[in-house]
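SEQUENCE, STRUCTURE TOKENS:
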Amino acid sequence: MSYIQDAIASVKRRNAAEPEFFQAVSEVLDTLAPALERNPKYQKHAILERITEPERQILFRVPWQDDQGNYRINRGYRIEFNSAIGPYKGGLRFHPSVNLSILKFLGFEQIFKNSLTTLPMGGGKGGSDFDPKGKSDAEVMRFCQSFMSELYRHVGQFTDVPAGDIGVGGREIGYLFGEYKRITNRFDGGVLTGKGLSYGGSLARPQATGYGLCYFTQEYLKSVRGDSFAGKVCVISGSGNVAQYAAEKATQLGGKVVAMCDSAGYIYDPNGVNLEVLFDLKQRQRARISEYAKLVPGSEYHPGCRGIWSVKADLYMPCATQNEIDVAEAEQIIANGGIGVFEGANMPTTLAATEMIQKAGLLFSPGKASNAGGVATSGLEMTQNSERLSWSFDEVDGKLKGIMEGIFHNAYEASQAVGQEGNMVVGANVAGFLKVAEAMLAQGVV
């Protein structure tokens, strides 16, 4: 469709130095032809041009001092991408790889992910090239305070609500919230999500993305194959928050997780990963995953994280980072006889790999659908903050399960409606896009 190709060319021309952002935009827009052909009003009102341009991009300096008294400088970002259906909502990422391209890609994906949850949240993302690894608590605190001394001007429970992401956990959220409260002289609980339970956080929030991935996958297996996790061998990349709780829920649902990784390498445990050991290493010791093999007899450690996809399994769940599965990895998954790939990270599978996996007949779920559990529960945290209430773990978990099952069915039904039944990439993109596009039309040219 020429309108789509013209829009993609325009994005590439205007954002030539941002490959991750261009990749995300082109992959989404290429799937929207059926929706645009049925709704020519979207072209008339330049919806693609508007939805691919952030409403606001904020870039700022973050000066701080390390424990030796040295002055350090990092860059801070906040991409407020689209607020058509609610306040900007999306995580903060602290990692050396953070740049404008990556945050725009994440913010763009967040628009559709948040739309799929059915909760009133727009799309945004932010962070810094600061690396919290190896830093003392005092250094992380000073950085977070400096970061928030600028960010506070741009956020608020009715404007923009950040959460955690890679490198931003409960410790960082606590420091950020404390500085926001000090500067503004307000206990504005809804300004950040992922907070501690003692000051407005939600039960089940740490587990939400990983649990949500498994609830989505379980519903997918049940609806399409009459199947479940029971007896399935699982490979889950990563060993951070998402991967840990995906492993926990997959195990609870009857699966056996045999491989996990970090950026240096992967472990293989044919008996199933010992979650007690894994959680202690990652949550208490903050150690490398290689230590697991030293503690658990019969397990193995292999250098090189991409080797994890050579492990034979039924279900593959990439939960680490973007573009971790390319053509070579997809070929291995297919050769291993895998049932499907279910994304827990943001855009972990390249377009070429995605097409290869789908062509081979494997199930495939895009991250904007299957990893939406984290932001969905952030939305539930916002609701609890607004009501001045705290729900039980089971109540939040039950709502999360219902949301993830609803996302699957919305995306699947959208794929049917546009004549591509079972293509969850098309279904998720179309379902997420239509809600946002209609809201944009209703609100005029803003």
Notes: The domain at 54-187 is CATH 3.40.50.10860 (Rossmann fold). The two ends are 26 Å apart (CA to CA). The mean pLDDT is 96.
